[in-house]
Amino acid sequence: MQDVGPLWNLRMFSLQWKHLIWFLGIRFCQVVLNMGMEER
């Protein structure tokens, strides 16, 4: 069981990392769209 712990933690961390990148990507797109609309 001792070697399963780190792998599980790494898997959970990678999932959180994907969600973080996904969230940042959406926020970045929203900011870019808002800036583009303000220029017009």
Q: For the terminal residues, how far apart are their CA atoms? A: 59 Å
- Proportion of residues in β-strands: under 5%
The major beta sheet can be summarized as:
none
> What is the string of SSEs from the N terminus onward?
H
Helix content: over 70%
The secondary-structure class comes to mainly alpha
> What is the count of structural domains?
1
Tally of helical segments: 1
- Mean pLDDT score: 87
Per the principal axes of the C-alpha atoms, what is the gross shape?
A: rod-shaped
Q: From the alpha-carbon coordinates, what is the Rg to the nearest angstrom?
A: 18 Å
Task: Give the strand tally.
Answer: 0
Low-confidence stretches: none
Structure commentary:
By secondary structure, the protein is mainly alpha-helical. It has one domain. It has 1 helix and no strands. It is rod-shaped. The model has no long low-confidence stretch (mean pLDDT 87). Keywords: Membrane, Transmembrane, Transmembrane helix.
List the helices and strands and how they pair.
Blueprint (H helix, E strand, L loop, with lengths): L3 H36 L1
Key traits:
mainly alpha; membrane; 40 residues; 0% strand; 1 helix
Compact description:
With 40 residues, the protein is mainly α. Helices cover 90% and strands 0% of the residues. It has one domain.
